[in-house]
Structures
1.
Amino acid sequence: MTQIPEDIKKLSFEKAMEELSDIVDNLESGNIDLEKSIENYTRGSQLRAHCQKKLDDAVLKLEEIKILPDGKVSKKK
């Protein structure tokens, strides 16, 4: 399992995805040296794990929602 640093844990899903997208662009460009590529890859893995956790948490919350016959929303018990 990927260890997620505290600074990444504080990021919103959107901010983490934005940073991850920038890292992917940098890696795909091939314009950075090997050491920086390794650093970027490591941070990208951490960001991906953080985003996946955020998505998993959201799915769990959605699974707790129940739609009643009258169309109202309730939390499952």
2.
Amino acid sequence: MVLACEGRKTEPANFRAVKSYLRDAALNIRILRHDTTDPLRIVEQVVDHVDDLRTQRRWTKGDAAFAILDGDEHWQSEAQRRRWDDAVRLAQRRDIQLAISNPSFELWYLLHFVEQRAPLTAKQAIHALRQHLAAYDKAKGYFRELHIDPTTPLTEVAIARAAALQPDPGAVGLARWPNPSTGVAQVVRLLLDRAT
């Protein structure tokens, strides 16, 4: 599995924590490094990496590639929207899956603790998350802490809550990623299923 995350700290830390927790030698997760938050450049990076793997005959039929992006900040101007639309079209053409969080990745963590149905900003998501993870740090992965709970399987709860936020499958344009919503749950579910 190939993952390219918009965030340089939060998302990679989360997926490194998932990989560490699963300890499945057969589960190959590549987290690509980048120097941009531009969604088109991130999708292009995934395409290039997958093309390299195909050239090396290291890409198999069951492999998946994801671009993991925050949504709201990329929709504020017409120029940003055009780049976003170009990224979405390229991902569709090249079979790159998009895992979009609106407003931000922190929503995924927040869903482990509460249902979040009202729209919020990225700053509000972090504030709400700190009500449950007081020492929240963007550079730390919390999968182990959130996945292992003696009374409640928090990751399964978060996956169910994220599924309830998904829009109608026929939604088009920005309506495909309403606030709040997150596609991170789909990536985590895929990783958990592949490791079992």
3.
Amino acid sequence: MSDALAAGPDGRLRCGWGVAAPEYVDYHDREWGRPITDDDGLFERVCLEAFQSGLSWLTILRKREAFRAAFAGFEIEAVATFGDAEVQRLLADAGIVRNRAKIDAAIANARAAAGLHDGGESLAALIWSFRPDSRDRVPRSYDDVPSTTPESKALARELKRRGFRFVGPTTAYALMQACGLVNDHLAGCAVRDEVEEDRRRAPASLR
């Protein structure tokens, strides 16, 4: 059993980070590693991973509802229309991370995702095409969890080629972890098998 596991408030063992704050428990159990297969859902995660750069994920989780309100529920087509007035509104919004480069990137990423739609493609199909064959990999400690992989590097390159910003290999791998392309819950984590079952049920077109 990994020493990186820790008991949550219900006594069940979880990945250690997943019990570090109350917000983490819910996110760890209900979201992290479970497949996100819709374009707007993936767009939200791309944006939030970019806003998290240099900050803690807990900061982003605590501001998440404010982000959703500020960015039109992360509807790709809506955010793609944002202009200077919206940028100024976002820079004045104390509920979110007021970083001009990251705000500009979120809008640019919406336009890039909308461009995929215009070409008959989807963001989900693009991202999931980089899903690695990691079915036999079960990390037992944090030392077994990489920060980048060949697939995350390839995904980052392709997203950048398509016009996306703030999507380096480390951010791309964090996205893959969060959205179910990989299952990095540690061996012995109470929700690892649930997450793996959810991944097996992902649409065949994305697997």
